[in-house]
Design brief:
binds S-adenosylmethionine, Rossmann fold, 7 strands, single chain
Length: 244
């Protein structure tokens, strides 16, 4: 039943990408169909309700499409009984380095969400209730990562949430495999200087604790060969991860 539901959620969330071109649609199908994080965010109720959401390194805006589709399906009464209610975002803003990705996001989603071309190291984050950063921070230096995390903390509301996915550098073979895939993908996307700045999970936790976040972790690599972990970091209270 849930598997069937997730399949129709993927169908609906990828449909807008048909208008953004063949590549955009196939990429959306592959990513939303193969990455457990998207269903995980909903299943565990990780995105707060009525939140201004900032998606840093948003690519072609798949998270925005996913959340907007989830909201619509929940409103139609098409929703798994054992999942928490779908979040009803106040706004969704994506920041992305690559202009081509932002163009695809805008073509697919129109003004249902806002997308900005920009480098997360320089672009103003505005104010947000929830910040999501999935598989992005390791592209910039450790110093720049710390600065982004500090600016995220300052951009968040007093009880705001940061959802951060990283690879665990102590994750053994699955981690090595994800680094290899990452190098390949960044090379294919035209980046020639693709040094990655990874850290063990314990270091990510310490960096967030040092900024005043309460942190919980959730493995987010089910069905994939990677060593990806989700850190749910909350200001002003304990992070709550609902049981699946
Ligand atoms: C692995 S992809 C993840 C995309 C998206 N977060 C997702 O999970 O589907 C990493 C994204 O981060 C973007 N990115 C890398 N460095 C960035 C920077 N300095 N500022 C903004 N975006 C960046 C890349 O262009 C790419 O779209």
């Amino acid at each position: 039943m849930t598997k069937q539901f997730v399949k129709s959620l993927i169908d609906n969330a990828t449909a807008p990408y048909r208008s953004a071109g063949r590549f955009a649609w196939h990429f959306a199908r592959g990513k939303l169909g193969g990455d457990p994080v998207f269903a995980g965010l909903l299943e565990h109720g990780l995105i707060p309700d009525r939140a201004r959401i900032l998606d840093i390194g948003c690519g072609q805006g798949l998270l925005a499409s996913w959340l907007l589709t989830a909201k619509a399906m929940h409103e139609q009464g098409n929703w798994p009984a054992h999942w928490p209610k779908a979040p009803n975002p106040t706004s969704i803003h994506g920041i992305e380095l690559m202009p081509r990705d932002v163009e695809r996001a805008q073509r697919a989603l129109g003004d249902a969400a806002t997308f900005t071309v920009g480098d997360m190291c320089k672009t103003d984050f505005g104010k947000a209730d929830a910040v999501v950063i999935l598989d992005v921070l390791h592209y910039v230096s450790y110093e720049a990562q710390n600065d982004v995390l500090r600016r995220v903390r300052d951009a968040l509301a007093p009880s705001g949430t940061l959802i951060l996915r990283v690879g665990d550098a102590n994750g053994g073979l699955p981690f090595k495999f994800s680094v290899w895939v990452d190098h390949l993908v960044t090379f294919v996307r035209g980046h020639r200087n693709s040094r990655l700045y990874c850290r063990p999970l314990a270091e990510w936790r310490l960096a967030l604790l040092g900024l005043g976040f309460n942190v919980e972790t959730l493995p987010m690599n089910q069905g994939t060969p990677f060593a990806n972990i989700l850190l749910i970091a909350k200001l002003g209270g304990k992070a709550v991860v609902q049981a699946a």
